[in-house]
Design a protein that fits this description.
By secondary structure, the protein is mostly helical. It has helices spanning 2-37, 42-50, 52-135, 138-146, 150-157, 162-171, 174-182, 191-207. The protein has a domain at 121-196. 9% of the residues are buried.
Length: 209
């Protein structure tokens, strides 16, 4: 009798457990099916529910990896920009140096041109003085030079050829002529060309209508 009661109690308990476990198992399977359809891993989700710290650790690791990758990308971009800036700086430096060279060349050309013009002007002036004194009577030329300082008179008389110098000095006061003689310069052969050019220019001007 007692064994029958124990058996009856055991069956009731088994039925109760089945009544609880079967719906619970059904709910678990249904939840797993939904998670599978949604693309999630049911096993991973269960692990995360049981061990929530594991998900936090994974998220932290993932976040750290993303930040590291972003920092590397930013560093790479900064290095590329720095290289580009260096290339641009070199180009600008080259252009500036080229401009400086061009300006220096233009300055040198301008100085050369100015010196040439100055030399031509001085040559023309010397030719004019030489032609003027050579065209004058030596006595009159000597009288004019006598009124100038020795230094100034020597400057003008040195524009002339040796023959004209001698003719003018003969008409001057001996003391003045002696002082001028000390300042006389040798007449270079190419200066005759200047005087000839001045003579030709003067002749052409005189003969012009």
């Amino acid at each position: 009798m007692e064994e029958t009661k124990k058996t009856s109690f055991g069956m009731k308990l088994f039925k109760v457990l089945l009544a609880i476990l079967v719906p619970l198992l059904f709910v678990v399977l249904l939840a797993a099916l939904f998670l599978k359809l949604s693309g999630a891993d049911p096993i991973s989700e269960v692990k995360h529910l049981i061990f929530p710290e594991s998900r936090t650790s994974q998220q932290s690791d993932s976040s750290g990896t993303e930040e590291t990758a972003q920092l590397k990308q930013d560093l790479s971009n900064a290095q590329a920009q720095n290289k580009q800036l260096n290339r641009d700086n070199k180009k600008l430096t080259t252009q500036i140096n080229d401009l400086k060279d061009q300006l220096e060349q233009q300055k040198n050309d301008a100085d050369t041109s100015s010196n040439q013009m100055k030399s031509q002007s001085e040559t023309a002036t010397q030719a004019m003085y030489a032609q003027t004194y050579r065209s004058m009577d030596p006595a009159k030329a000597g009288a004019i030079l006598s009124k100038l300082s020795v230094k100034q008179a020597a400057k003008y008389i040195n524009y002339l050829d040796d023959k004209t110098k001698a003719a003018i000095l003969e008409t001057m006061d001996p003391e003045k002529a002696a002082e001028l003689t000390k300042l006389l310069e040798a007449k270079l052969p190419n200066t005759n060309t200047t005087e000839s050019a001045g003579t030709s220019a003067s002749t052409a001007t005189t003969s012009a209508p």
